[in-house]
Amino acid sequence: MKKQFPMRVIAAALMLAGTSALAAPGLSSNGYFRAGFGASKDGSQACFGLGPAKYRLGNECDNYGEFGLDVEGPAMSNGTVWKGHAMLTGWKGYPDSINGASTSWSQLYLSGHNLGTGVLQGASIWAGRRYYDRPDIHILDYKYQQSDGDGAGVENLDFGFGKFSYAIERTAVTWRDSSKSDDDTLYYANLLKLESVKIHDNGYLTFNGGFSTGKESRDQKYKAEGGWYGGVFYDAQLGDLNAWNRVGIQYGKGSMANGNFGQINTDAAKEDTTTQFLDNVSYTSGDGKWTALANIIYRKDKRADLWKDQTWFSVGARPHYHFDDIWGVATELGWSQLKSSGDEKTRTLSKATVALTAAAGRTPYSRPELRVFYTVAKWNEEAKGWVAYDTYGTQTSGSSFGIQAESWW
């Protein structure tokens, strides 16, 4: 269920709830927000992206917030603990980012922890609506695994060689366009994960997999295709550097052919596939003066619909120099290429941002952080009309500047 509330009302409610959470035993808060303003040629900020995701520093044209509360009950005599979780999400895009935010309950679930001995020690069970298994490439804000939904599951069954999790989630889809009726289709996603499989010191494997089954609409007019996916990730420290690297490969078919693996692709045909490779690095220098995030990603979507049959490749980095524990200068460079079978054209986009920052620390993820930024972008002739069209139309370059605050806790 979604409602429209002024952003100032949401902000006031969140501050009051957060203050109460800090004072109440068994109650804690968590969340995220970004907010600010920017401008481009026509007065409103333009954002530059090509393909499934865009490099986000100085390139986010919205205000967005998540505020969660966790309630923990008293521990049972055997050590089992029960918790309740709720999260409200609000979003509003530029230029009218002050009034009328779109809000929804993104999480409402219960969980039980420390359920016994053996494999159950440290394990948990849950049921409800939740964010589930959603690692991302931060500078792209791209969740290559995203199993959010309504369902239930068990997590972190420790078998010694690794920890196993299973969840089942349901997605109901109601078609609301001119070509389809309002009849529902129904999907069930079965999600499996084996993680913390140690193969050497500071080196681990994670295996993800899943399969979906679909139930056609009530009038049997629209079929819900099934599907499956699998992925493997290797996490390791890079030598003696204070740097971590994740390399992964993923493949999905049918309704689980989706770069955000774990989600249902409701428009999929039976033979649709998605293949994805990624490399994601984080680094902090020994003296703490330099931090960096970098990534490479390749995604191939093979689709019956030629305009959705695309190949996306992107590489980017965010080096950040820290003058002290507060002040710094961040830069972000990104290059993306998109090929579409719809017209056989190759589109490219280059984007660069420089930002003066004030943050609570010297790591790549130190927050809160305030930024004053300037962004420039350039794209080729084939990408005319695909990048920042509302502001720059059929031009092949653009820029923006602004101020942004970002925090999580």
UniProtKB/TrEMBL annotation:
It is found in: Cell outer membrane. This is Maltoporin. Its main location: membrane. Keywords: Cell outer membrane, Ion transport, Membrane, Porin, Signal, Transmembrane, Transmembrane beta strand, Transport. One of its GO terms (biological process) is polysaccharide transport. It comes from the Bacteria. GO terms for molecular function: carbohydrate transmembrane transporter activity; porin activity. InterPro entries: G_neg_Bact_CarbUptk_Porin, Porin_LamB, Porin_LamB_sf. Residues 1-23 form the signal peptide. It is a multi-pass membrane protein. Belongs to the porin LamB (TC 1.B.3) family. One of its GO terms (cellular component) is pore complex. Gene3D superfamilies: Porin, LamB type. Pfam families: LamB (PF02264).
